[in-house]
Amino acid sequence: MKQMDIDWKPLMLVPLLAVLALPLIGSGSTWLTLTVAGLAMGMIIFIIASGLTLVFGLMDVLNFGHGVFIALGAFVATSVLGAMGDWTGSQELWRNLVAVFPAMLIAMLVAGAVGLVFERVLVRPVYGQHLKQILITMGGMIIGEELIKVIWGPQQIPLPLPEGMRGAVLMGDAAIEKFRLVALVVGLLVFGVLTWTLSRTKIGLLIRAGVQDREMVESLGYQIRRLFIGVFVVGSALAGLGGVMWGMYQQNVIPQMGAQVNVLIFIVIIIGGLGSTGGALIGALLVGLMANYTGFLAPKVALFSNIALMAAVLLWRPQGVYPVASR
Amino acid sequence: MFKRLLSNDLPRDRTLAVLLIALLIALAFAPFIFPGVKALGIAAKVLVFLVLVASFDLLLGYTGIVSFAHTMFFGIGAYGIAIACTRLGATWGAVAVGFFGALALSFVLALIVGLFSLRVRAIFFAMITLAVASAFQTLASQLSDFTGGDDGLNFKLPELLSAGLSFSEEPFLGVALNGRLLCYYVLFFTALASLLALLRIVNSPFGRVLQAIRENEFRAEAIGYRVVVYRTVSSVLSALFATLAGVMLAFWLRYSGPDTSLSFEIMIDVLLIVVIGGMGTIYGAAIGAALFVVAQGYLQDLLKLGSDATAGLPWLSALLSPDRWLLWLGVLFVLSVYYFPSGVVGRLREMARDPQSKH
């Protein structure tokens, strides 16, 4: 395959932000801790945002109810991990991983299955009607959140990390929490699989073509609706996975967490350019780093800093860093 | 005269007219018909929500813009009065400073948000306003020296509006004539005037342009209307009315906190009311607000009955628990977006126009 022309400028934003923050923070070890934390948070956000941005790119459907799948995944994980107390309580890392892996898998399955129902019942009847889409998916989010409250109760549930993932590794003077490294690895894995699927398989080719020009793909005889359902389900499952990671990152879960994360996700996909996976990665890393740096430097304006970031990016590239054709 | 007052936008359906008149009478004489502090509180809440929801209808129903930052302006109104009255003492000057300060802030913010993001498509605007609103809410709870943080602010209003002041020794028709009653009527007439003003706006030539933009933006632009300007003016107007609703809330509660004015739950409530009441019909806001606020109490009681009756079936019982009333409203919301996009009011009007559909 011929080497694609890659637009490098947006890629430089991430290291640029990290370097700019260094003199402001002062201490190198603190900077390293914050940077790793930011990258880990960014990876988790990317896992969640990638599905949403593809769904939008492919079908012009913006799912305001995406947050429900995040919360759902996290709550399923509390149940699964709770049932496997022997394994999570163990000191050995491999036994922890054996516990966490099925938790992630089940969370993804449940979120994906609910995503299928969500698409059928709520999203399908309102294709192409933006106003109704926003309202309906918002309604779906209200219902989903309430159903989670019915099943797991409205209170906050702790989601303790397995023993082996607690604590920190020392790198020089910088303390780096182990779980953040796990999050980085999982995020890179998801990004790798996603990029491979999108760039090297036929399905990926169809998805990319559909994002660029839906009607053309349809006229070539491919059923884009079926493809879309697949993307929606995978996107929901990824949100479920992201929910598990986010819950473990925060170490507790509440039914409203979906709505809270949703705000960050929207900022990310706007920065990235709606429909662009690579853009979502850059947006997520920027948001993650920004949140951690400003959380340290000026905690009161943490959320505003992300909005300022979004405004700055949009002034530079009004369609997001990687604009997708025909949008 | 009557027609002029309603800007020629009559209810156009007998049932709707009866409902509206009943609502007007109930609210006008609420202190005398429904005695008791709680009932009066509910009536005042209906008035506040009526203005808030009607102003949102101008945006959503008439201009076709989905904004999630409406509670931000509501909160600015409530906090404006609260902060001014705590800092400057309980004087009329402080109330005026708070009121006009809040209006000015809302004006500027709505203008900025509008000019920056109304050029883009509806979806972008919805996402950006969601982000801005949640950042604003975080800011309000972070700046605790100024806003009281999560606890909010308790404050005093000028003495004329407080319950301690009596105008007459004798109760009139069993109701004590005190500052609290006066405060209720201040709210009532403000709400009535706002509603008539909004009716005037949406039925003016300006309102017609807004509806044209809602129906077909491209065409409106082609005819020669500057869509961005009209949309921005509409969102600024709507923000100002929302601020007014916030001021009314602060007047009534003498308290302002994140949960009563800024929270996302209120935004969802407003969305539910507009859609269920009827988008694009200012009357829908009135009917919807009354239904919703009453249902908040009534539906919960009904669900409690259902929950107790099905105590044998834990699953069903949990679904019917009174705490889950929002679940059922959510279902109603989704159903009404599908089947009655024009809400209660629109449905009534359709039945009046076309009796065939009354089966």
Quote the distance from N terminus to C terminus of chain B: 36 Å
**What percent of residues of chain A are in strands?**
under 5%
The side-by-side strand order for the widest beta sheet of chain A comes to 1-4
Average pLDDT rating of chain A:
83
Question: Unreliable segments of chain B (pLDDT under 50, ≥5 consecutive)?
Answer: none
State the name of the first-level CATH class of chain A.
Mainly Alpha
Q: Quick check: average pLDDT of chain B?
A: 83
How many domains of chain B, as an integer?
A: 1
Oligomeric category: heterodimer
What is the total tally of β strands of chain B? 2
Q: Over the alpha carbons, how many angstroms does the gyration radius of chain B reach?
A: 21 Å
Proportion of helical residues of chain B: over 70%
CATH architectural name of chain A: Orthogonal Bundle
- Helix-residue proportion of chain A: over 70%
The tally of structural domains of chain A comes to: 1
Q: How would you describe this protein?
A:
The complex is a heterodimer of chains A (327) and B (359). Chain A has one domain: ABC transporter involved in vitamin B12 uptake, BtuC. With 327 residues, chain A is mostly helical. Chain A is globular and about 60 Å long. In chain A, helix 2 runs antiparallel to helix 10. Helices cover 75% and strands 4% of the residues of chain A. In chain A, strands 1-4 form a two-stranded antiparallel ribbon. Chain B has 18 helices and 2 strands.
